[in-house]
Amino acid sequence: MLNTITHGVPTDTRPLLIVHGLFGSARNWGVIAKRLSDTRQVIAVDMRNHGDSPWMDSHTYRDMADDLATVIADIGAPVDVMGHSMGGKAAMMLALTRPELVRRLIVADIAPVAYSHTQDGPLAAMQGVDLSTIASRKDAQAQMPVDAATATFLLQSLDLEHKCWKLNLDVLAHDMTAIVGWPDVTGQFTGPARFLRGANSTYVPDTAEPAIRAAFPAAVIETVADAGHWLHAEQPRAVEAAVRAFLDG
């Protein structure tokens, strides 16, 4: 069972399940989750091989969708689901394979397509840190050949007390092709779906729209101004407002 962080208490409104992206955790969504919990219960998960969730020997979208289905079975279906990046793909896979579990779907800055970019740089940066020599995150950052913003994000998953990463780096590296890719999946999710994309991000170009429409015919694509891929961190108020408008619509 995935580790979860729960915000708020059950209400007459269906709960919202939040699914983070690659190298992230449930805590990345803490501010928005807490604010949205004023009208509904919000549950954020640590995905497998991330945070305080179990380490598994595979990391595919079918795996992740099955994990989310187990969480929803415990909450009570259906729920609203919001996922960012890798978490958005996991949420899409869940909606396409188990549509009865999802009431409304929000996908943040990702599309149901395979990408050509690589995450080898951040992986190598984390794997290259000599954890035996560090006493602070600053020490670790000094050993990471990535920009400051990326290092700050990755270092949220460093457990200083135990001098280890709260990420299963070996399995994530092994299954990185599957993570940046998109499996062959049939079916559609015909329920309400909202795709939020950052205006400064390249993850959801106009060329991805046919793939989105084919799998999610009721989808609406909304652009968040002055935001990149980490739109929820860069424009939290705008993302919160868009999510509220969609869920309450």
Brief overview, please?
Helix content is 36%, strand content 16%. It has helices spanning 30-36, 61-75, 86-97, 120-127, 137-142, 148-154, 169-174, 176-180, 209-215, 231-234, 236-247, and strands spanning 4-7, 16-19, 42-45, 79-84, 102-108, 158-159, 164-165, 193-198, 219-224.
Features:
single chain; 249 residues; alpha/beta; seven-stranded mixed beta sheet; globular
Q: What report would you give on this structure?
A:
- The chain has a seven-stranded mixed β-sheet, sandwiched between helices.
- It has helices at residues 30-36, 61-75, 86-97, 120-127, 137-142, 148-154, 169-174, 176-180, 209-215, 231-234, 236-247, and strands spanning 4-7, 16-19, 42-45, 79-84, 102-108, 158-159, 164-165, 193-198, 219-224.
- Helices cover 36% and strands 16% of the residues.
- It is globular, with a radius of gyration of 17 Å.
- The longest helix is centred in the N-terminal third of the chain and has 15 residues, at 61-75.
- By secondary structure, it is an alpha/beta fold.
